[in-house]
Amino acid sequence: TVMKATEELNKPWCLSVFEDNAGVIDFDGRFALCFKVETHNHPSAVEPYGGAATGIGGVVRDILGTGLSAKPILNTDVFCFAPPDFPYDKVPEGILHPHRVFKGVRAGVADYSNRLGIPTLNGAILFDERYIANPLVFCGTLGLLPKELSYRGKQSPGDLVVLVGGRTGRDGIHGVTFASEQLTGESARISYSSVQIGDPIVEKKVADVLLEARDHGLYSRITDCGGGGLSSAVGEMAAETGVQVYLDRVPLKYTGLSYTEIWISESQERMVLAVPPNSVEELLNLFVSKDVEATVVGEFTNDRRLQLFYQRNLVCDLDMEFLHHGRPQLRAEAIWQQPKYAEPDFVCPQR
């Protein structure tokens, strides 16, 4: 595998691989480059513009959440669709026509990138009838950061959990599970709410102020809210320490969300910081001055437990070891068979 080969080669210029939000390599001894690419296929199949836009927004946040935060400097993409002139009468029921998907996806990536001020410098496109039901939408971002900041940060017990950026709503709930489901004619109707709603202007402001906070050393660790929302971002950060989170402190787009929805929502443009107590006032004032919301929603502990509170009630208390490693691992046997290829039959040209 690529992972095994990379680990066996163990090149000194590979600074961080398979452990952070993006891979990091040495650039010139002073700066490092990080690169992240993801697919956003299912969301783009049911809502092409929004699915592609939030796809590029997600990889930009991965770059912001790599090391102690990198600056996104360019975007890239690869698109695979069915032919845009595919006969309408042959499009399966419940599936958008590939021409509509093509136009929406291209516009989604372009618009979100342009509003962030990040150029899309290269890309590729392929048309094949086999992509009629499920397009392939690769989105990627390249980032630049000082080499000494390319390591993943580490919080200390007592550091505060600070949620910054966009507010939390129901959009995107079950986005990760939807991405792994089989698409059917009912997918667009049933899973439309699983497609996140993007706001690139919020993400632009978050990106700018994060780099300023980084350069002032105001936080000890950072990650983004991607798949699983707070549950994965905070849960992963606190795996080696423990954490207490007060879900009723999370800023909401509207009222009526349950604490479960707040915890797993995949609303966009959100980052999570670990902030030492002596830096939190300066950090919050900085974010306010840049018109970016920042809220203390919890505290890292030293008991290796995940504790969630909502309106003074303890609604979750799990051991971190159980949370991350408690599920029995599935073991399966596979048999590899040598593929058989027919020898080509052709007349050799005369010399």
In short:
The protein has 351 residues and is of the alpha+beta class.
Describe the structure.
By secondary structure, the protein is α+β, with helices and mostly antiparallel strands. It folds into two domains: 9-152, PurM-like, N-terminal domain (60s Ribosomal Protein L30, Chain: A, 2-Layer Sandwich), CATH 3.30.1330.10; 153-326, Alpha-Beta Complex (Phosphoribosyl-aminoimidazole Synthetase, Chain A, domain 2). 30% of the residues lie in helices and 25% in strands. It has helices at residues 2-9, 41-46, 48-64, 98-116, 175-180, 187-190, 200-215, 230-237, 259-264, 280-289, 320-325, and strands spanning 14-16, 23-26, 31-39, 71-81, 120-127, 136-146, 160-165, 221-224, 243-246, 270-275, 294-300, 305-310, 313-319. The protein has a seven-stranded mixed β-sheet, sandwiched between helices. Strands 1-2-3-6-4-5 form a six-stranded mixed β-sheet, covered by helices on one side. Helix 3 runs parallel beside helix 4 and helix 4 packs parallel to helix 7. The longest helix is centred in the N-terminal third of the chain and has 19 residues, at 98-116. It is globular and about 80 Å long. It starts with a helix and ends in a 26-residue tail after the last helix. The mean pLDDT is 92.
Features:
single chain, 351 residues, alpha+beta, 60s Ribosomal Protein L30, Chain: A, Phosphoribosyl-aminoimidazole Synthetase, Chain A, domain 2, seven-stranded mixed β-sheet, six-stranded mixed β-sheet
